[in-house]
Records
---
Amino acid sequence: MRIPEARGEASARLFSVLELAPGTPAANAARIEFAEAVRNVVAESPEIVRDEDLQLTLFCLYEFAYGGIDGVPDLEWDPALLATRAEIEAAFEAELRAVVPVPPRPEPTADAVARTLFDLTAPTSGPSLSRFVAKQATDEQLHEFLVQRSIYTLKEADPHSWAIPRLRGRAKAALVEIQSDEYGGGRPQRMHSAIFALAMRGAGLDDTYGRYVDNVPAITLAALNQMSMFGLHRRLRGAIVGHLAAFEMTSALPNRMYGNGFRRLGYDEDVTWYFDEHVEADAVHEQIAARDLAGGFVETEPDLLDDVLFGAAASLTVDGWAADHMREAWTAGRTSLRAPLAVAA
């Protein structure tokens, strides 16, 4: 991924750090200036989850734990950058814990946890992004939808995979079973990220990872940053388990409608395959995720039940905000992106 455009003082200072050779006096001074900028922006931000500057900064800092940034040295374990990242994470997590509505605490058994999660993720009859895509979305809006989803889906499953070495027993086996399907069961052309890339190409979009970072708003970045934060911290392993459970349990029905929306406008199987694949796969995954992954995890580590519930609720809340942003923008007749998208014919 290339370095994106800065969105404020924090991201601008970070990109100054990335342009300097590590260990030089100029680079050390730039790290200090970056830390001070982040501290100021965090203190002044009215809402971390929608802060364009902070969410882009956090996204780029996390990228060092994934594929890295083009032309930038490996800074994954840079102490100064990790310390500054931790300041953003602390404010981000505190805000999420303050605003996310968590369901009542069930008994710490697999069956009770599964029932709570099925209640929490039950479909509702109100307005939804998937219904809008199925019935109303224009071709331009469908392209925006793919662009918004590309930020996570071109590396689908990676944030949740951080949890594998942190679980054991029934929960570990369940997570590996789910992730094996996400990664194509050993067939690279069937990896869900690869199938989504095929959909983007079929719609005339660039499937290069990170190509559209500059186009998407903070709330889209926040949805991915939340996953990375939960996955990269062992103390938040309960939250990443809950996040994945809710993520899988709310996938099959919306993806059926997304696929129908693309078919309605004449797109072929190269574009709809990704959504149709999730209708079948996630109908199975939701049972595994609720009972074996989340339920099995809680039976092994009952002290982390509250974090499992928080992670599930946070998944629904933040992803819901991102979906509402798109639907509300389109209903009002405006783009959901930070800038209009030029789509190839």
---
Amino acid sequence: MKILHINLAKGWRGGERQTLFLMEALRPLGYQSVLLARRGHELAGRTLKSGLPVIPITKPFLIAGAHLPGYDLIHAHEVRGLQLAAFWQAVHKQPVITTRRVDNRPGNNPFTKYKYRQAVKIVCLSKAIHAGMRAWGVPADKLPVIPSAIKMQPAACNQTSRQLREKYRSKKIIGCVAAVEERKDPLTFLRVATELSRQRDDLMFIWVGNGPLLNTMQAKAEELNLNNICFAGFQSDPAPYYHLFDIYLATSRSEGLGSALLDAFLYKVPVVATAAGGIPDIVDHGRTGLLAPVADIKKITTHLLTMLAHADLRNGCVARAYEDLRQKFSVNVMARAYDNLYRDIVAVSQNQNKSASR
């Protein structure tokens, strides 16, 4: 089966990594996957390096319709890709699916409604996304839930890992890997850091990532006199930081799923997180991590102190989280789910085409 994957994002974030993971995992299942992506951007480069074919395009993207024929199915991995596929769907007639990665509802303008109607399935990463799309008016049978996934291959400690551990050897590290943006709620992260720093002097807080609020948060940290926080910026390979973290803290207000938490599970880092969006699909409170209400500084702080104080809790959570990762969130599990979905969609499409030609 031949699948055209479309992802027109500029950067390298969770959705782009998931696109590449899926294409790689489909290869041993006999799929021919081709990526339509922005010329010169990281996803295209990494996909080529992985040995998978890429069709690079530039703006205006809508004129790229000539690249769409010849595939059994088109899979749009973000909204611009869906716009392109939906615009040409009436011409080329292939079935289109899309993956919805955020837990907010789409807008109500006519073209937004049109493009989602053109998708035969809207894959939701979490129950929260599914609920949002149902409330927006999409039938439940059009909304399969397939979560993000991760390769069960943690990177080994390297020189960067050892240098970071040496730099912070006297500290307990509470870290996060995320874009510095409103929905990740970095301000709550700072407020928790301020509260904990009043109670302990052996903590270091590290935020790995870039984003529109970076300068604002750096200024806020100075205002709060936080001298034990580091904004490490974007890291194309954040693995050394996962090796460094003693606890992973996610303070999100909104989250489609929270795939960075899967990395924390992989590197056996205990997790404290807010119960935002799809995070409870990953973190089972008291079993694989601790959950707090969104923006609840007191509860988040209490959970962090509890996790720091109890080795049995930490060890139990990371062991159970790793087992959940293997059983529910590996790329092989994700690929099998998409394999079943693709085959069902293509079979229906072929039957419809046969009926129409009679």
---
Amino acid sequence: MDFLKADALPWLAESQQQLRDSNRAARLPHSSLLSSTPGLGAEHLANWMAALALCETPERPCGVCASCLLLKADTHPDYHLVKLEEDAQQIKVDQVRELIAMLALKSYRGGYKVGVIEGAEALNMNAANAFLKTLEEPAANTLLVMIARPTHRLPATIASRCLRIALRPPPTDMAVAWLAQHGPAGQNWDAALSLAGGAPLLALELQASGLAALESDMQDALRAIGAGAVDVTLLADQWARSNLPLRIAWLENWITRRVHTYLGEENSDQTAERVRLPAALLKPKIRALFELLDAARDMRRLASTGMNQQLALEALLLGGRSVLVPRGVGTVVIAKSK
């Protein structure tokens, strides 16, 4: 575990300083909930918080003491990580019980005991109930850190017992400067940052995974949908097997740009000119776009609930076929009155 990675992410500096101040004042929170979208480094901050609690020197975390070295090697006996197991959609109660058992033991090194739960919104009901007792009756010198998305489904009884730390995307100039320093030289980061919701780490990952190819593939798919030239069932199966969360995020951004375009607020990537439709035609178009946007957001939010993603995607694409029309396909032509 490289917990010092957090020091290289400038948008985390304020949260780090607040936690340092709390630690110096012996007020380090017993339990924290990091609310974050992917790509902002919440996992790095959680690791750094673990090091802050477990480090054995005054200047924490030092990175060189015995505890820090054990943590770096992922062998610290007073640290326990809980996350989704491979191919699982929920964090199970047995995983939480292992964490609770570790926290009940005496600290091996005579200091803190730390538990981290990644993707805490995936806790099933039994796991959440088991964990609640630990939050209600915390042992001394324990640190619990949960990471969840802002739209988490954590029970209020759990979330209310945690210090909430909301991570937000940095200003664009900070994000671009960081990406210019840590990414390939000469890149234009606008598209990647837009798709990543302003999250620099995710933008870096998207750029490296071939964002241009995805952009081309999605545009081709929308043209085929708009022209009725593709089997939506086959397309949904293809998307469900290949970067579905990324495709849904791309679709959300695309729909949002179309809404702005139809409202005449800005130019879009799909057309060089502002769209000025009469109100009679504009209103149903905008309504359909917003309904499609809501459906895409619901699908992303419910993706971890065990829903049949292919069937949900088929319904989304079929329901939005009338508005999934890129530039040059199905253009509305309004005849001038004579």
---
Amino acid sequence: MYQILCKDRISPQGLEVFNPEKYVWGDDFENADGILVHSNPLHDMEFGPGMKAIIRVGAGVNTIPVDRCSKTGIVVFNTPGGNANAVKELVIASMILASRNALEAMEWTRALQGRGTEPGRAVEKGKEVFRGPEIMGRKLGIIGVGAIGSRVAKAATALGMQVYGYDPYLTPQTVGELRPHITMVGDPRELYENCEYISIHTPLNDETRDYIGREQLALMKQGVYLINFARGPVVNEAAVNEAVSSGHVAKFVTDFPTDEQLTMKNIIGTPHLGAGTPEADQNCACMAVHQMMDYLENGNITNSVNLPDVSLRRSSGDRVCIIHRNIPAMISGISNLFSSAGINIDSLINRSREEMAYTMVDVGGPVGAGIVDAIKEIEGVIRVLVYK
């Protein structure tokens, strides 16, 4: 039986995907085969020798020690796109609410209660202060045009906005598919200088931490609306607070408000609510469980953040999967061991991702412990798994 450790509440509809004859799941396993996690931090957690996979039921993996997992041969996955619609809807809603000063207007209207007169009269006198611009015809800049950013672009285009995007990692094919909805630019400064609304949709890593700081904010148009539903540290806190206080940023909407920002005017904070819908929970959980089962049972990798995606249809014999460093002569070394043992290779596939690589070998019969031990001795091999 495979043991799956759930570090957060996982959607029951997702857990139901597990085959109960092969899997057990819960929150108390000492040496689980895999972990499903939402936002519970795992950096201080020790992983048992049986740990093979960690799946973030969502997108961001900053709470997972990815580098440590790579060194020990633990594959880290996420579920990109599973919560994209949920985040998209809240981004669009927040942009409109911020632009129209709707939240402040709601609070002001609620304060009219109990004054002894009909609110309608006071409303007509006081509503002028809350007037704000429509988003139709305005320019929206999107930093990071992935699963979420692309959906925001399409929705904003449908609402009549002019959408510009920056994402150096998109393939030419993806850029072509997005062309009816977004104008891609080669430098983010073009967005800062020309767009009235800017929405950030990048992962958090060393490259994107403080991605929006004083220099970037200074390039933005006076009265820009800045929206962050990516991760808090993507925007430098001190810099954006200063820009909001000076009025350079008209409104800052963030799903990750700090204590100081909760007290500031013109900063709208939501409680990490972007992916907080039952539909998103279910979508991500189902994706995560399917990915977990396919890896634990077949060695196939889909949506990994530390290893390449690799998938191969099973043959009739055993399968050997090797996690290793991306170094020369690795494939020949592995093939030679099978050849020396008189084992015929039916299929072999190898993929690399930066310094990491993954090799799947299907053979026509059983694989003994001797060849597995020999593969482990090859320099650069991190982990060897055999699938019967």
